[in-house]
Design goal:
The chain is an alpha/beta fold. The chain folds into 2 domains: 3-202 and 294-316, Spore Coat Polysaccharide Biosynthesis Protein SpsA, Chain A; 222-291. Helices cover 48% and strands 14% of the residues. It contains 11 helices and 8 strands. It has an 8-stranded mixed β-sheet, with helices on both faces. Helix 1 (16-26) links the parallel strand 1 and strand 2. Helix 5 (126-142) runs parallel beside helix 8. It is elongated. The relative contact order is 0.14. Residues 308-318 have low confidence and may be disordered.
Length: 318
């Protein structure tokens, strides 16, 4: 089985060369190709990746995106150029040991479409772990993810899954949402999780919020239903408050007249309207961006050596 290893690179100039070298050493007895996707890095990652491809012309594909589109968009771009029977997605920071690629690919042979890695101990910050915990809960509710499955970025997909999810062309992909839209044949293996080799995580609060929004609004209408339920609850709460204000007015002659009911009604209904309009606006905005041709990613350059089973002109048109 030929395996494509997809590595989205963002400011990974200090680690990517060593990572590729270790992948080739650790997996020397496997038929692998490596797809490096430079996601608009602000350092010299593009030059480093280009030099790696020139040293390994037949086994490395370099995809250079025109700007930073985000990790999931970069992974989708890499999957479109993958020529293997299976693809393994991994980060560029050495937190996923290259030797354990074999475990993920071997698990696919048991009949799974996707195999996720899980960790006995994670070397993430408290903030990142908290975000992953919240993301897991939301994925269980919205995507029907198994409750005990950790949505790791280190995972393997078979060719069927690659072909299915790369058909998605909208500008806000969420890989795990696409996976659970296609299959429930999902396996998992326990692997090691190492500390970052250098730098810090690229997942800021803003990036995590964007990722959650991609999951919420692209693969479920549950937020709209929650907004409807919240609106009903708020209306009932407003009726109760108004009733109490009327009761107060009749039972206490000194109670101020008018303003409690007015303030309660304004605050409750204004807040509800803004919340519901915000949720609807998010859905409409994404529909608009999808319909007006907003690209999922833009490839500036692709460098790939000839593969006997896949000529260069065929690669360039994918």
């Amino acid at each position: 089985m030929k395996t494509s290893i997809i590595i989205p690179v963002y400011n990974g100039a200090d680690t990517i060369d060593a990572l590729v070298g270790k992948l080739f050493r650790e997996l020397s007895d496997n038929d692998i190709e490596i797809v490096l996707v430079n996601d608009g890095s602000s350092d010299n990652s593009a030059a480093v990746c280009r030099a790696i491809q020139q040293r390994h012309t037949r086994r490395v594909i370099f995809v250079d995106l025109s700007k930073n589109f985000g990790e999931h968009n970069a992974v989708m771009a890499g999957l479109r150029y993958a020529r293997g029977d299976a693809a393994v997605i991994m980060d560029d920071d050495f937190q996923n040991p290259p030797s354990e690629v074999r475990l993920l690919v071997a698990k696919l042979d048991e009949g799974f479409d996707v195999v996720y890695s899980q960790y006995e101990r994670k070397h993430h910050s408290i903030f990142r772990n908290l975000g992953s915990w919240f993301n897991g809960i939301m994925a269980t509710i919205l995507l029907k993810k198994p409750p005990n499955l950790y949505l790791s970025s280190f995972k393997a997909l078979n060719r069927f899954m690659i072909d299915q999810i790369t058909q998605y062309t909208h500008p806000y992909p969420y890989i795990d949402g696409l996976i659970f839209r296609v299959t429930r044949k999902v396996g998992r293996v326990t692997v090691k999780h190492s500390p970052r080799a250098s730098g810090k995580s690229n997942y800021s609060l803003v990036r995590l919020v964007r990722l959650w929004l991609n999951m919420f609004t692209n693969f479920s209408i549950l937020p709209l239903r929650i907004a409807t339920i919240l609106g009903c609850i708020t209306v009932l709460f407003g009726i109760v408050i108004a009733s109490l204000a009327v009761y107060w007015a009749f039972t206490d002659p000194l109670a101020p007249r008018g303003w409690p009911t007015l303030v309660c009604a304004m605050v409750i209904f204004s807040g509800t309207q803004l919340l519901v309009l915000g949720v609807i606006g998010e859905y409409l905005g994404r529909l608009f961006l999808g319909q007006n041709g907003t690209p999922q990613s833009i490839v500036r350059e692709v460098t790939a050596g000839q593969d006997p089973s896949n000529p260069p002109d065929e690669v360039a048109t994918q």
